Amino acid sequence: MEIVRLSEVGAEIAALRAAEVLRAGGVILYPTDTLYGLGADALSDEAVEKVQQIKGREEGKPIHCIVADTKMAGEYGEFNGTAHRLAKEFLPGPLTIVVEKKAGLDSGIARGIGTIGIRIPKNEFCLTLARAFGKPYTTTSANASGRKTPTTVEGILEQLGESAENISLIIEAGELPDSQPSTVVGVSGSDVVVLREGAIPAADIWTVLGLEPREETV
Question: pTM of the entire structure?
Fold first, then answer.
C-alpha cells in the first residue's frame, strides 16, 4: 500500500500518480470536499467490484462518480435543463446529480441500471485527478457499509480491517472536518427527488428549482 501526502507533493503530482493506479485497475483512498472516498475506474466492472468488496457493500446498491466538469458529465449522462440549473448553482460542490445514463453505457457503475450519479467536488485534488484520468472514477465514502466514515486515514484503515489491503494508493490529506456527505438529487426524466439530504439542505434545492418541497425527500 503506497501513501502519497498531499502537503508534500501537491495536487498535480498526487493526481498523476493516482491516475496511473486507476488505469491499472487499482483502488485509491482520497480526500474530497466532504469525506474521504474510495476511487476506482467507474466504467470497469472489475474495479467497481473491488470497491464493493472493500466496503462490504451489497452488489446493486448504486455507486456514483466524479468528473471534471459539466462537459465531461454530458458525455456519460443526459444532463437536462434541471440538472444544468442545479450544476450552475451548486457545482463544484457537495452535490450528486443522478441523471439518465447515455445509451450504450453498460459497464462498471452503470451496469444493470438506467441512471448515473455524477459529482464535481469543490476540491483541487479531485478535479485535477478527473482531468488527468480523463474519465469518471468512483466516489463512495471510505467506510465499511452502514458505518460512519472516519475523518482520518488511520481511522478508516482500522474500520475497514483486512479489506483495506485491497487499497493500492492512499492520498493522505490529514484529518478532514467532520462533514455530511453530498446531497443526492435525482433528475432523470421529469421527476425531481432528493434521494439523500446531506451537506446542501433539501430546502435549498427546491428554492433554486422554484418547486415546493416533496414528500419523498429523505
Answer: 0.93
